[in-house]
Amino acid sequence: MARTVDWDGDAIAAIDQRALPAEYRIRRLATVDAVVAAIGDLTIRGAPALGAAGALGVALAARRHPRDPGRVRAEAERVAAVRPTAVNLRRGVERALARLDDGADAVLAEACAVLDEDEATNRRLSARTADLLTELCGDRPLRLLTHCNSGALATVAWGTGLGAVRELAERGRVAEVLACETRPLLQGARLTVWELREMGVAHRLCVDAAGPSAIARGLVDAVVVGADRIAANGDAANKIGTYAHACAAIRHGVPVVVVAPESTVDHATPTGADITIEERAADEVRTIAGTPTAPAGTPVYNPAFDVTPAELLSAVVTERSTFRDGAWTVAAAPALR
Ligand SMILES: CSC[C@H]1O[C@H](OP(=O)(O)O)[C@H](O)[C@@H]1O
């Protein structure tokens, strides 16, 4: 699989995640308008992937308007504002924009650095999470519940929550993954299942409401999810439905681990109550694959995310820190070999 988001020398090359699993196709995005549209319609989705797309969107603007920094900043703001919850999007934009005074080539180089750093970061946080799950659940094949998609498709490569599943599978420590379909846009059914088949990991698909029930019936050893923004106190915003799994998990003594890069931790946001939750279009709920499921005009409540309070989480794991029992601890630097 190619990188989820990449630079082809003149434009952004992105896997079109709306087309999966039926079709694997790359969309070429050569303008800021195209990037804004692709983020809005979830051609590109997932916090780290959004960060990469945001940085590359600024690079496109800087190449298009090399002598108009004001225009570049305005275009950058258009990109950053498309989706408010995933902190990585604005961070990727700001990181690229910080090089604007050095010229368009420097902006592009910074954006490409965002991409180049991602896979190594995700492999590190995946290994740290696999170690923690082994500590929490025992050194045995585990039955894991996932929600939405936090795999390679949500990042530039490898993945976060599903990256940890991949790491455990390579260690021979995954018995089965129960993948929640994730209404309304079905990232679980369409994307996580597709990635699990690519990995050769045993899995079953279930409706979202079956997640808490599976936990209650003792079918799940741990819940492993990604995140879009993690507040300073460890509260985590993730796909709508995550909170319900966590409520069931704490009642039944099942660990819930949030896996995300440091770039998703927002220490400037004190608690989950301070996180803006994106509301999406009503028709996403009133239809399935374009077929109406409710009468036209039915009023809809469609938050794209919910917040799981830190007290319901066993841990938040990044590539270099862990939030557990109310505190962040930084991992010791890996021993020099
Ligand atoms: C590794 S970030 C994945 C995160 O992003 C998803 O949201 P969306 O598909 O709307 O971009 C979901 O919350 C995943 O957990």
UniProtKB/TrEMBL annotation:
Catalyzes the interconversion of methylthioribose-1-phosphate (MTR-1-P) into methylthioribulose-1-phosphate (MTRu-1-P). Keywords: Amino-acid biosynthesis, Isomerase, Methionine biosynthesis. Gene3D superfamilies: translation initiation factor eif-2b, domain 1 (1.20.120.420), Translation initiation factor eif-2b, domain 2 (3.40.50.10470). Belongs to the EIF-2B alpha/beta/delta subunits family. MtnA subfamily. This is Methylthioribose-1-phosphate isomerase. Coiled coil: none annotated. It catalyses: 5-(methylsulfanyl)-alpha-D-ribose 1-phosphate = 5-(methylsulfanyl)-D-ribulose 1-phosphate. SUPFAM superfamilies: NagB/RpiA/CoA transferase-like. Substrate binds at residues 45-47, 83, 187, 238-239. Pfam families: IF-2B (PF01008). The gene is mtnA. It comes from the Bacteria. Pathway: Amino-acid biosynthesis; L-methionine biosynthesis via salvage pathway; L-methionine from S-methyl-5-thio-alpha-D-ribose 1-phosphate: step 1/6. GO terms for molecular function: S-methyl-5-thioribose-1-phosphate isomerase activity. It comes from Actinomycetospora lemnae.
